[in-house]
Amino acid sequence: MATISSIRTSGDRIEIIDQLLLPHTQEWIEIDTIEKAYEAIKSMKIRGAPAIGSLAALSVASYISASLTQDPRPDFFSSSFEFSKHIKPLLDHLFLARPTAVNLGAALDQIRNVLDAGVESHSPVEQIAREVIKTGRAVHEIDLGQNRAMGKWGGDWIVEAVKKSGGSGEEVNLMTVCNTGSLATSGYGTALGVITYLFEIQKLNKAYFTQSTPYHQGSRLTALELMTLEIPSVMVCDSMVGSLFQHHRIDAIVVGADRIAKNGDTANKIGTYNAAVLAARHKIPFLVIAPTSTIDLNTVDGSGIPIEHRPPIEARLVRGALFPATPDANGKYPQATVMVTPLEMKPEGVYNPSFDVTPAELITAIVTEKGVAVKENGAFDLKNVL
Ligand SMILES: CSC[C@H]1O[C@H](OP(=O)(O)O)[C@H](O)[C@@H]1O
């Protein structure tokens, strides 16, 4: 099946597809500095919790790998202590790019741990550097396998749940929020991986997806991913979810996650909580699909999850292809950004959180690459899926 990826690498070279220009223009940007990685993550040229963790880790790996080949080598290779002292602030900086997704911090912490272990054991600096490179690159590679596993766990669980409630499980309808596909991960996707799996085993009837904010990533990115995969799909505006549940058979909601607290409270793209409340009202199973790196046992519940607010201007603008669409001489569709609010609107006149927190109470199951967790006596024990 055709897919679209967000990151491509060759040796030390990293490129990302500019997701702000999709679906109308496919433009690859080279990420040859850590600062460029930071800027791409912050501005959402790359997005999706696992994908931003991958890019951050890859950018550190490439920076070190390229520095190793310099002649003379930079001064920070003079000792393992100096090396760690130089790299750690770069990790701190990358971590600040987006605060909610725990995968970014988890990826950077893996590198931090390698540095600490290397300094503690007095390993030669070159050995530590090579270990960091290996670790940084592995973050990206491991993600893909995990997504396939989650797709199967989640998909099989949904089919069984539909059968238990009297359905055939042969024509499942799902709804999702945001974009959680190949573009948001190293490939296959999290919630979109479940949709893809059910499509592959011919048990999917239709995938519904919300437009989502910021940047309409559902209507731009999820739409593109589902069309590329040739999965039958229908877009709904976020405010139509209640109506959808009233008038159509939806067998389950599948969403990704940016951070799952110890008790199962889950931060995900804004609009997820609304969908969960409506799903509970309509008794539709609500599943969170995320790799174990998204589970943050240090955060006891959702009240401790930092919620990113995007710049107010982003909620006032829409970007897209000029319509009627006519390709220019290079075959590209001219795009424009337009303001939809009154021009005089003040920044304080806009509420623009990027995420909301869905309480565990509203979540039916949490699916990781290790399996499916359901509540026992009303509470999740996530140790079983870690
Ligand atoms: C691939 S699932 C993770 C998660 O990433 C998204 O965040 P963003 O697009 O803001 O980077 C979204 O909330 C997804 O569910």
Automatic annotation (TrEMBL):
<dbReference type="GO" id="GO:0005634">
    <property type="term" value="C:nucleus"/>
</dbReference>
<keyword id="KW-0028">Amino-acid biosynthesis</keyword>
<keyword id="KW-0396">Initiation factor</keyword>
<keyword id="KW-0486">Methionine biosynthesis</keyword>
<keyword id="KW-0648">Protein biosynthesis</keyword>
<dbReference type="GO" id="GO:0046523">
    <property type="term" value="F:S-methyl-5-thioribose-1-phosphate isomerase activity"/>
</dbReference>
<feature type="active site" description="Proton donor">
    <location>
        <position position="258"/>
    </location>
</feature>
<dbReference type="InterPro" id="IPR011559">
    <property type="entry name" value="Initiation_fac_2B_a/b/d"/>
</dbReference>
<keyword id="KW-0539">Nucleus</keyword>
<dbReference type="InterPro" id="IPR037171">
    <property type="entry name" value="NagB/RpiA_transferase-like"/>
</dbReference>
<dbReference type="InterPro" id="IPR000649">
    <property type="entry name" value="IF-2B-related"/>
</dbReference>
<protein>
    <recommendedName>
        <fullName>Methylthioribose-1-phosphate isomerase</fullName>
        <ecNumber>5.3.1.23</ecNumber>
    </recommendedName>
</protein>
<feature type="site" description="Transition state stabilizer">
    <location>
        <position position="178"/>
    </location>
</feature>
<comment type="function">
    <text>Catalyzes the interconversion of methylthioribose-1-phosphate (MTR-1-P) into methylthioribulose-1-phosphate (MTRu-1-P).</text>
</comment>
<dbReference type="GO" id="GO:0003743">
    <property type="term" value="F:translation initiation factor activity"/>
</dbReference>
<dbReference type="InterPro" id="IPR005251">
    <property type="entry name" value="IF-M1Pi"/>
</dbReference>
<comment type="pathway">
    <text>Amino-acid biosynthesis; L-methionine biosynthesis via salvage pathway; L-methionine from S-methyl-5-thio-alpha-D-ribose 1-phosphate: step 1/6.</text>
</comment>
<comment type="similarity">
    <text>Belongs to the eIF-2B alpha/beta/delta subunits family. MtnA subfamily.</text>
</comment>
<dbReference type="InterPro" id="IPR027363">
    <property type="entry name" value="M1Pi_N"/>
</dbReference>
<dbReference type="Pfam" id="PF01008">
    <property type="entry name" value="IF-2B"/>
</dbReference>
<keyword id="KW-0413">Isomerase</keyword>
<dbReference type="GO" id="GO:0005737">
    <property type="term" value="C:cytoplasm"/>
</dbReference>
<keyword id="KW-0963">Cytoplasm</keyword>
<dbReference type="InterPro" id="IPR042529">
    <property type="entry name" value="IF_2B-like_C"/>
</dbReference>
<dbReference type="GO" id="GO:0019509">
    <property type="term" value="P:L-methionine salvage from methylthioadenosine"/>
</dbReference>
